[in-house]
Design brief:
With about 400 residues, this protein is α+β, with helices and mostly antiparallel strands. The strands form 5 sheets. A 6-stranded antiparallel barrel has the order 3-10-14-13-11-15.
Length: about 400
């Protein structure tokens, strides 16, 4: 048996070369086809995404009849505030109060020295004594003449003259007494008294100053007193709320920097007040109603002139439509909302009413139960197919 010789290394290498070339060619083909396959898959995914309806979140239009909160700026003022003027000429002898002094009704504020009036009062008193003596003599004389007339000694004409003289003397006496009483009253004006309990907020005189009676345009008040145990809170209420504002309604007056609760890092004091009265007519320029609220201030923590925020709860005028503020779309064509009907978007113009912060009042354009898109995208267009999901979960609206 003859054995065939073993293949040489060169022959084995020649047979393996085609296999290597085939494998290499296949690898090159696969490397070139892989990017095209990835691009094809990406395009397919884009087509599927474009054909899929976008998901939007919706909220329903609701009817609301709850009371409306209203917060307005205001300023505090004293319940009564008056400047004090002199009622007689004189020099300031002493001042018993100063700014910040707490006074009670009837307390002496300052004293005036009035030497001219004092001398006039003495003279008037002397004149009154003279006229009283003359009147007494006239009465005695008339009595004697009446006795003589009964005896027929004097004529009726003479008796009438004596009666007239007695009447004149009586009138002179009353006039002199009235003048003396008037000057005594003027002397009493030398002591200026507090007309009501309060705080002295201004002082315009000092000891020795000459003051003139009256409150002429050029006259300066001696003192100013403000009653602070109850304060007025004056504010302007807009027409939309003023028509439902009534005396007796409660109000919350918030004052900054006085203690109590903290709002946004700022210390705020809240005081309860009551609506006392309104002006009864709107300001034709601002269309607001001047309203007065009274707040107690027995501790005198609140000061006239302070700035405050007044919060009311105004009764609702009737059912109103409310939409979330984040559903509003503002574009060149006006204010719109996106309503979802049968999985399709409808851009609807709306007429807005009052702004309640997170919600808005709508006067026209939608009806209760309409599903509105919240946080609508800029690309949202009329007729766009969408998949609507109720905000916060629940049944999908718009079906």
């Amino acid at each position: 048996m003859t054995l065939s010789p073993a293949p040489s290394p060169r022959a084995r290498h020649g047979r393996a070369l085609p296999i290597v070339l085939v494998v290499l060619l296949g690898g090159l083909l696969a490397a070139g086809a892989w990017p095209r396959l990835a691009q094809s898959r990406a395009r397919e995914a884009e087509r599927e995404q474009a054909n899929t309806a976008p998901t939007v979140f919706t909220e329903r239009v609701r009817t609301d009849t709850t009371s409306v909160p209203l917060e307005l700026p205001a300023s505090l003022a004293g319940l009564h505030e008056t400047p004090v003027f002199a009622r007689a000429n004189g020099f300031v002898r002493s001042v018993r109060v100063d700014i910040g002094s707490v006074v009670r009704a009837g307390d002496t504020l300052l004293l005036l020295d009035m030497p001219e009036v004092r001398e006039q009062a003495r003279q008037a008193a002397a004149v009154a004594e003279q006229t009283e003596a003359s009147a007494a003599l006239a009465r005695a004389t008339l009595t004697r003449w009446q006795s003589l007339a009964k005896q027929g000694v004097v004529t009726p004409q003479e008796l009438d003259e004596r009666q007239a003289q007695a009447a004149v003397a009586e009138a002179n006496m009353r006039a002199a007494q009235a003048n003396a009483a008037n000057l005594r009253e003027v002397l009493r004006f030398g002591a200026l008294l507090a007309p009501f309990s309060g705080v002295v907020t201004a002082r315009g005189v000092d000891v020795g100053a000459l003051v003139v009676a009256g409150a002429a345009a050029t006259a300066r008040p001696l003192l100013t007193i403000v009653q602070t145990d109850t304060l007025r809170v004056m504010l302007q209420v807009p027409q939309s709320a003023a028509v439902r504002l009534r005396p007796g309604m409660k109000a919350r007056v918030q004052i900054r920097e006085l203690q109590d609760s903290t709002v946004s890092g700022i210390v705020v004091r809240t005081v309860s007040g009551i609506v006392v009265r309104t002006a009864g007519a709107f300001d034709p320029v601002t269309r607001t109603l001047l309203t007065e609220v009274h707040v107690p201030n027995r501790e005198r923590r609140l000061l006239p002139g302070m700035f405050a925020q007044v919060a009311f709860t105004v009764p609702s005028a009737g059912p109103s439509l409310r939409i979330p503020a984040i559903a509003l779309i503002v574009r060149g064509e006006g204010t719109l909302v996106a309503r979802v009907v049968n999985d399709s978007v409808q851009l609807v113009p709306v007429t807005l009413g009052r702004d309640f912060g997170t919600t808005l009042e709508v006067l026209d354009g939608v009806k209760p139960g309409d599903a509105l898109v919240v946080n609508p995208a800029e690309s949202l267009s009329d007729g766009l197919k969408v998949r609507a999901v109720a905000r916060g979960g629940g049944k999908t609206p718009g079906k």
